[in-house]
Amino acid sequence: MSPTVEQHAENWDLRHADFNDPDFLYDVYTVMRGNSPFARTDNPFLSATPSGAWVAVRYAECVQILQDWEHFSSSPTPEGAEQLAGDLVITLDPPRQQKFRKVLNPYFSPARMKALRHEIAAETDDLIDVFIESGSGDLAEVAWRQPGIVFFKYLLGMPVDDVPLCVELTDTALNGATEEARMGAWGGLYQHLHDAVTARTAEPPRDDMIDVLLSAEIDGEKLAFGDVVSNAMLLVQAGLETTASAMSFAYHYLATHPAERDRLIAEPDLLARAVEEFIRFAGSIHGIPRTVAKEVELSGCTFSLGESVIVNYASANRDEEQFPEADRCILDRRENRHLGFGAGVHRCLGSNLARLEFQVGLERVLTRMPDFTLTAGAEAKFHGNSVTRGFRSVPVTFTPAARTR
Ligand code: HEM
Fold first, then answer.
1. Beta strands 301-303; 38-41: pairing state
2. Cβ(394)–Cβ(248) below 8 Å
3. Which atom of ligand 1 is nearest to the CA of 245?
4. SS3 content of the chain, % helix, strand, coil (to 5)
5. Tens digit of each residue's pLDDT (9 = 90 or more) over 43-69
6. What are the residue ranges in the chain where pLDDT is below 70?
7. Nearest CA to ligand 1 atom 21
8. Which DSSP string corresponds to 28-79?
9. How remote is the C-alpha of 371 from its chain's centroid?
10. What pLDDT digit, counting tens, does each position of 141-156 carry?
11. Is the CB of 242 within 6 Å of ligand 1?
12. What is the set of domains in the chain, with CATH numbers?
């Protein structure tokens, strides 16, 4: 028999198959937030902690943890450190973490992103062209391919042909059925990037992120080769599945809410706010760990040295104390200080890119197939027992139109 909502809330296990449902996990979060600011899990999704972990589920405590890196460090537990290959920006604390960001930040500046708008629109159009003449297609294909193509081609400097393999390896690394399959996929992704970066060392420099990592100096020293590969791998992993799953949710939502779809077409100025709401409502990550670096008390709970605390951004984003009608997707929501991109020193480095890809992805679909709806009788496929959740298939029907080229 499946556990009840209350049983799930007692011991949160994100890999449980019950969460392959768009709403049930949020019912569990409501109970978790009602019980206490901190829940427990025996099976942390990303952190290797044999004794389980705390889970911060309310908005206020999540923000406090994210802003207090001196007590809640991003360095993994000793068990977690064994699984890491290299110094990653996301598992470092300041001041070294800030120096890594200084190296990468210019590549994600608003000005650089703005200059990419035209290319992102053209890449999205190419993906829509695959099915636009037929009057039916799968919008998950657009959501899952566009972020990878854009990132590999215009920022990272990896061949676009590598995108499907990297998406598949990242997916298996996060969601594979066994620990062995997951570790095998991490290894495969690392090896793939290792080979790609090695090949680049023999080529003349280009203006892309692999070269930036290869030539970067921190405290007067170049990055170790392993750190270049690991950070390239982090970028691939952080930038693909997150944006793709959030965008797939938005396509499904608009395909099943035609009045909302029509409103976005009639009021395109709402798009930016709608993207923020999609990220708050469904696009956020469901937990990244912190390790307690010094004993500390927060909201009546004492955290001891070495314990693991998972920050559940997605649950925080549904906290009624912060967001009125938190369980409603309100496309023109005004006050929306969501935690979808995190907060504090590790706030998402790629948020400007993700927002642009997302906005352009919506804008091109709404412009070119304005009457799209979920295909009657066909099934949308949702994958939800994962740290990022989204649709793997969104079959839609619409009035056929001409290709762009
Ligand atoms: C909708 C899409 C995205 C979401 C929801 C998202 C979410 C997040 C969150 C919650 C964090 C904070 C992690 C922490 O607190 O430890 C983060 C960090 C990060 N994100 Fe994103 N992200 C998205 C897209 C991207 C993209 C497109 C890239 C790059 C191509 C990217 C690269 C990174 C990196 C490198 C970090 C680590 C920053 C640091 O540790 O200083 N993300 N992201």
1. unpaired
2. yes
3. 1
4. 55, 10, 35
5. 888 776 778 999 999 999 999 999 999
6. 48, 77-85
7. 348
8. HHHHHHHH-SEEEESS-SS---TT-EEEE-SHHHHHHHHH-TTTEESSPPHH
9. 28
10. 999 999 999 999 999 9
11. yes
12. 5-397 (1.10.630.10)
